[in-house]
Design a protein that fits this description.
Oligomer: heterodimer
CATH class of one domain in chain B: Alpha Beta
Strand content of chain B: 15-25%
Helix content of chain B: 25-40%
CATH topology of chain A: Rossmann fold
Radius of gyration of chain B: 26 Å
Number of strands of chain A: 11
Helix content of chain A: 10-25%
Structural class of chain B: alpha+beta
Number of helices of chain B: 25
Distance between the termini of chain B: 45 Å
CATH class of chain A: Alpha Beta
CATH architecture of one domain in chain B: Alpha-Beta Complex
CATH topology of one domain in chain B: Phosphoribosyl-aminoimidazole Synthetase, Chain A, domain 2
Structural class of chain A: alpha/beta
Low-confidence stretches of chain B: none
Shape of chain B: globular
CATH superfamily of one domain in chain B: PurM-like C-terminal domain
Strand content of chain A: 25-35%
Largest sheet of chain B: 7 strands, mixed
Largest sheet of chain A: 9 strands, mixed
CATH architecture of chain A: 3-Layer(aba) Sandwich
Order of helices and strands of chain A: EHEEHHEHEEEEEEEH
Mean pLDDT of chain B: 94
Chain lengths: 225, 733
């Protein structure tokens, strides 16, 4: 069975949540790995989950982005190992310049936890293999620094994008909630797909919008993408 | 020095000599009201604390109650009122840190937080500063440690304008066999883990055991602790793993009273002594004096008792998480706490003398205003527009949506939150730690207006309210904890509120068969610079169990054509109501009568309907009465309903206002499908529940009629706008 590593930094708090969903929804082998014990070989995919790595001191994701693990992960990308960054994981990947853009404090200057509707644009790669273009889904966000900023839309327009649909909760440029590399091998997003993948956790009138991500990676690791 | 001359004499007599300087500091910390419960202890014995499933009751850092098979839920409640009045951000965030560490002392994974907040009017600038700081403090700390704030309550009252009450509770879960609860023995190591010890929070417990003068120029800041959530998160990860490995015997939080209190309680509880070398502790400032080290309340520090055999394993784990630690000494059988600092013996105290000061019996006097206000039957209701009154109630910050607050908390982290804030009467968490499908419900309640008018009834009603909220979401209530926030115990009229609250809780909990497994007392909630009494309040946090989370209930109306039922008889009980307060500016009258036996029968009936799947939505009737409860169901379901008030079971009511806004206890609203209505009514007679089929879900307006007379007709859209936006308008985007 394909194996997925979920990296835990000091302050990471959603590692077990992602492990649960990878096992339950993706039906993959998954483990939470303490950052200093992580070695890239032997893993079929890696997730950097949400939380407050190093307490978000300095800037969200800034310290973890300089860590040995992230250096090792960047090297592993050459071997085609899919990498997903959720929330703080996304912040780390932009700070490490693996993904374009930066994440700034929310326009309201307050932490925001709520469900939002998002749309997938140009979906491709292992994390979005089963997603069709313009697919609309519900997921919760929970962040204080989630305002995506990028100077020109042209920088990202051709990339896989996840955009807020109908309501932009934090003032992100071009409503961007997530972005991938051109091949879709790396994906980062502020909403939490792991919190929107089971009927028990999804409010009655909303969709289990994160499920498609976990079904995609499951399919991609077994059958290629 | 907070020790009285009487207490100093007591100390001299017990020791047979003059106490040393370090000893005086230790006594001041441990004999403070905050740590010793000297004014409250003998009343607290009234509370029923045992019951089926109670593994660890009051007296420890946290309580443990057995739920499903071999798992235990851990509960703890704390207040951080004094520090939050001075520094709302740090005061509130360290409150969260402390209550989480208390749950951690049993090795449990903390899975949920609740906050019970009492603020001044949002229109008052200083109150707004306190509100913003407290909420941001809880948000920043709770979010960073990855423990979701899932429920609670917020109350606004002028008396909290400069002096907020901040109560927080934490829920944990652990396999019962893994609870860290071994008996400490001679020669076990005493290890302090976590943050460095510094000058923050020096004698914070003693500061919290005095009335504050918030106008004066007294500098309270040195007594305020400052939190570091990253270290707390590491301690959580470390201790959960250590408990799982079974390598720690006993844990204590270094909370109020710091090291002095932790050592006193540890040794005295187990008839042991301790040999401590203070200079071995890791400190922040090299010039810290030994007596400061003993009473510092620097945050994120825990005392671990470890056998020498397991110490190496513990060290490996501590190094993995990069946590600082020091072995400061060991336990012995002497019953004496001996503190050395650089080879000097600076304190040598019998553990029992330090840990157990004499109980203080305080005088009680009924305040004059109580008799005047509570017995006021002079309420002459003027004519008010009923639709306007309902909108006014929905815009009252006590009732309006608290989304401005809870959206700042990450209430989803941990992927356990099934019924989320704002959707049900309580939060429901699935216990993925145990097995799929099992869950618990948690909720916190308190009503300062009821307590102010009648503390016995007010506190009892909060127990009942919590019980109903737990029932509403489909759980079986199993235990509560209480926090008693009161004024100065040395003032007989203040102390009276405390004693009445304890009696009220004790009686109602006993009747509802709910063990009070833990609690906390906070005295001296008093601002000496103000004439207004900070309203005392008892807050209750309860836990219920759910066998199948798929059956957990929210209160949004589900389908057109369904019936709406009211369970329970309505009495003319507008005294102390939100209606009188918000619409008429009155705060008086007879507080609604607690009705525990009706609570039990009606609660049993509602549970049955939920269990059988007959109920589509359940909502308890709380402040604002029937009208507000129906409106909330409409708002969340975005559906209208037409209700004939003639069908509401009532006794003695002579006005429509009483049917709409009375706050009679033991009542619920239930949405039932047409196909089940006969079964539901048949069950009602079996359970002897008074039930009225009062309306039908339909349209997009909320309409209340009395026969031909249309009392209220408001569109659900308008209700929703008012309910959703009011708090945000008051507090700012």
């Amino acid at each position: 069975m394909p194996k997925v590593a979920v990296i835990k930094f000091p302050g990471t708090n959603a590692d077990l949540d992602v492990v649960w969903v990878l096992r339950k929804v993706s039906r993959l082998e998954a483990y939470s790995i303490w950052h200093s014990e992580f070695r890239a070989d032997g893993w079929d995919a890696v997730v950097i989950p949400g939380g407050f790595s190093y307490g978000d001191w300095l800037r969200a994701g800034a310290i973890a982005a300089k860590s040995e693990v992230v250096k090792e992960l960047v090297n592993a990308l050459d071997n085609g190992i899919p990498l997903l960054g959720i929330c703080n994981g996304f912040q780390i990947l932009t700070e490490a310049e693996v993904l374009p853009g930066v994440l700034l404090p929310n326009e309201s200057c307050r932490f925001i936890c709520r469900w939002v509707r998002v749309r997938f644009v140009n979906p491709r790669g292992p994390w979005l293999k089963l997603v069709s273009n313009d697919f609309v889904a519900d997921m919760p966000i929970a962040h204080g620094e989630g305002r995506y900023y990028v100077g020109f839309y042209e920088e990202v327009s051709k990339l896989p994008l996840i955009t807020y649909y109908g309501y932009n909760p934090n003032g992100s440029s071009y409503d961007i909630a997530g972005v991938g590399t051109s091949d879709g091998l790396v994906l980062g997003l502020m909403p939490h797909p792991e919190r929107a993948s089971e009927p028990e956790l999804t409010p009655r009138t909303l969709s289990q919008g994160g499920r498609v991500v976990w079904l995609s990676i499951s399919n991609a690791l077994r059958e290629g993408w | 020095m907070a020790l009285s001359s009487e207490e100093l004499d007591e100390i001299r007599t017990a020791l047979g000599r003059e106490p040393t300087n370090a000893e005086l500091f230790m006594f001041e910390a441990q004999w403070s009201e905050h740590c010793s419960y000297k004014s409250s202890k003998h009343y607290l014995r009234l509370l029923p604390s045992s019951g089926e499933g109670v593994l660890i009751g009051p007296g420890r850092d946290a309580a443990a109650v057995k739920v499903f098979r071999d798992y235990a839920v851990i509960l703890k409640i704390e207040s951080h009122n004094h520090p939050s009045a001075v520094d709302p951000y740090n005061g509130a965030s360290t409150g969260v840190g402390g209550v989480v560490r208390d749950v951690l002392t049993l090795g449990a994974r903390p899975i949920a937080l609740l906050d019970l907040l009492f603020f001044g009017s949002p229109e008052d600038g200083h109150a707004r500063w306190l509100i913003g700081g407290v909420v941001r403090g809880i948000s920043d700390y709770g979010n960073r440690i990855g423990v979701p704030v899932v429920a609670g309550m917020t109350w606004f009252d002028r008396s909290y304008g400069k002096y907020p009450l901040v109560n927080v509770a934490c829920i944990g879960v652990i396999a019962a066999s893994k609870i860290v609860n071994d008996k400490p023995k001679e020669n076990d190591y005493v290890v302090i883990v976590g943050n460095t010890t510094g000058r923050d929070g020096l004698l914070g417990s003693s500061f919290a055991s005095k009335s504050l003068d918030l106008q004066g120029d007294v500098d309270y800041l040195p007594a305020i602790q400052v939190g570091n959530p990253l270290v707390e998160k590491l301690i959580i990860d470390f201790l959960v793993e250590a408990a799982d490995l079974g390598i720690v015997k006993h844990v204590k939080d270094l909370g109020g009273g710091g090291l002095a209190t932790a050592l006193a309680e540890l040794t005295s509880n187990y008839g042991l002594g301790a040999y401590i070398k203070l200079e071995q502790l890791h400190v922040r400032e090299p010039d810290l004096r030994p007596e400061e080290i003993l009473v510092s309340e620097s945050q994120e520090r825990m005392l671990l008792v470890v056998s020498s055999d397991n110490f190496q394993k513990l060290k490996v784990l501590l190094d993995k998480y990069g946590l600082q630690y020091s072995v400061i000494g060991h336990l012995d059988g002497s019953g004496i706490i001996k503190i050395y600092y650089r080879d000097d013996l600076i304190a040598s105290l019998p553990a029992d003398t330090l840990a157990k000061p004499r109980i203080k019996f305080r005088e009680v006097e009924v305040p004059a205003h109580h008799i005047r206000l509570h017995n006021d039957d002079s309420i002459r209701l003027p004519e008010v527009g009923l639709g306007d009154a309902l909108l006014k109630l929905l815009s009252s910050p006590n009732i309006a949506s608290k989304e401005w607050i809870y959206s700042q908390y990450d209430y989803e982290v941990g992927i356990r939150t099934v019924v989320k804030p704002g959707l049900g009467d309580a939060a429901v968490l699935r216990l993925i730690d145990v097995d799929d499908g099992l869950g618990i419900a948690v909720k916190g309640d308190g009503n300062p207006r009821y307590v102010f008018l009648n503390p016995f009834r007010g506190a009892a009603n909060s127990v009942a309210e919590c019980y109903r909220n737990l029932i509403s979401v489909g759980s079986k209530p199993i235990a509560i904890v209480d926090e008693l926030n009161a004024g100065n115990p040395e003032k007989p009229t203040h102390y009276w509120y405390f004693t009445e609250m304890v009696k009220g809780i004790s009686w109602c909990a006993q009747e509802l068969k709910l063990p009070v497994v833990g609690g906390k007392v906070s005295f001296y909630n008093e601002d000496l610079s103000s004439d207004i009494m900070v309203k005392p309040v008892a807050t209750i946090v309860g836990v219920g169990v759910i066998d199948d989370i798929k059956k957990s209930m929210t209160f949004d109306l589900k389908d057109y054509g369904n019936y709406l039922l009211v369970v329970g008889t309505t009495y003319p009980e507008l005294g102390g109501s939100e209606f009188l307060h918000t619409c008429l500016g009155l705060e008086l009258g007879e507080v609604p009568l607690p009705r525990p036996s009706t609570e039990v029968s009606n609660g049993g009936y509602v549970s049955k309907l939920v269990g059988l799947g007959y109920a589509k939505a359940v909502h308890d009737i709380d402040i604002g009465g029937l009208a507000v409860a129906v409106a909330e169901m409409c708002i969340n379901g975005m559906k209208g309903v037409r209700i004939d008030l003639k069908r509401v079971p009532s006794r003695g009511c002579s006005r429509v206002e009483e049917l709409l806004f009375s706050e009679t206890q033991a009542r619920y609203l239930i949405e039932v499908g047409r196909d089940r209505i006969d079964d539901v009514l048949e069950l009602a007679s079996l359970y002897r529940a008074d039930v009225g089929v009062i309306g039908e879900v339909g349209g997009s307006d909320l309409i209340f009629t009395w026969g031909e007379f249309e009392a209220v007709n408001v569109s659900v859209n308008e209700l929703r706008r008012t309910y959703t936006n009011s708090l945000e308008l008051l507090l700012g985007r």
